[in-house]
């Protein structure tokens, strides 16, 4: 902690729809991974009478509430913004939709507050459940899923959307048709946000290049994704979280105008390059997480059984573990196969072009046992890589997910979540960890003065410790 005294003047300003004649007196900006950002703003009424006194009554509260309720059926727009200057040269502006205004009138407490939801939150209203298409097209057609997960998810949605637009389903009546067409029109905003998130994402599963040529895997994976989309008719953010879990991803929001965030690999929380972050501490709490009675040896994944479709040539059950070398007397944690890999794999009837170009089997005679065995060997190898990566992710999570640090530092609005930091003070290193949450607080209310930033880290490795075998 610094010995000197630094004097800074933080400043908060706001343009809030429906808050005319009010002055801002408190701002809380909250940004966390796997959530949409939100800002809470407090105001007090600055309108005075001839004597310079703010005089309010119950009718004033009712008037403000009525004004908000009268906009209930108006189309919302992200027309509100809050700007915070931290007094050290950094400025952060947050724009979005007014959400949940609240008004209070009591002794020594006159004012109102509201929340602002970022524009990305509008994706919650996206309803891809209306898009249709023959199941056989995704089961027997081309492989739309790609090793780049974001673009692959978008490609499947685009095909569903294209089917809906080019071959609309029969409607039982005009009323139903009108409802579906209205949802389709409303979907434009949500689709644009989801497209931006998918295209910005950095998650890749290279093994899908080969595995998507295996009908049983392609059928299972694409049918699973289609079903998730078709079941999405309420809150699309929950659909995003299903995809997040399915492909071991983390959603990182963006505060830049016109950007809506991205998915990154879960492993980045513990293995990505760490940026330097020097802080002036006000407080710190660190936890190593619960300690197991038996130390962790490795994580084992019990995979699917592999069989060839004609001769039932056994590939056996694929089992992978992480790490490869570990102490022999430790705990073995077993986990299941990733949900998108079917429990029983068959080679399927692959075309000559597909087998030759993708799996390099041209030197094997078509239909021969040697070719079948080579195919099984290749599939087992790629499935094994997927299982090993899953084991690695769970090994890292099991070891570090509950290792945390919570800091309160001087206000610094330049710090963003979703980044792995090496945290230091001016004279020492403290830890390396993944920043999962940031909260900027500014308040000028009497006896409640505040200007700080709260940081929440997970996957923390204290200085002097590094998890062995994490890469």
- The number of distinct β-strands equals 18
Q: How much helix is in the residues?
A: 25-40%
| Cα Rg | 27 Å
Distance between the termini: 34 Å
* Alpha-beta classification: alpha+beta
What is the arithmetic mean of pLDDT?
Answer: 83
- Count, helices: 10
Largest sheet entry? 12 strands, mixed
Domain module count: 3
- H/E series: EEEHEEEHHHHHHEEHEEEEEEHHEEEE
Strand content: 25-35%
What gross morphology would you assign? flat
Unreliable stretches covering 5 or more consecutive residues: 308-314, 349-359, 361-365
Describe this structure in words.
- By secondary structure, the chain is an alpha+beta fold.
- It has three domains: 11-119 and 406-414 and 436-452, no CATH class; 126-271, no CATH class; 296-400, no CATH class.
- 29% of the residues lie in helices and 31% in strands.
- The strands form three sheets. Strands 1, 2, 3, 4, 5, 6, 9, 10, 15, 16, 17 and 18 form a twelve-stranded mixed β-sheet that branches. Strands 11, 12, 13 and 14 form a four-stranded mixed β-sheet that branches. A two-stranded antiparallel sheet has the order 7-8.
- Strand 4 (80-85) and strand 5 form a beta hairpin.
- The radius of gyration is 27 Å and the shape is flat.
- The model is unreliable at 308-314, 349-359 and 361-365 (pLDDT under 50).
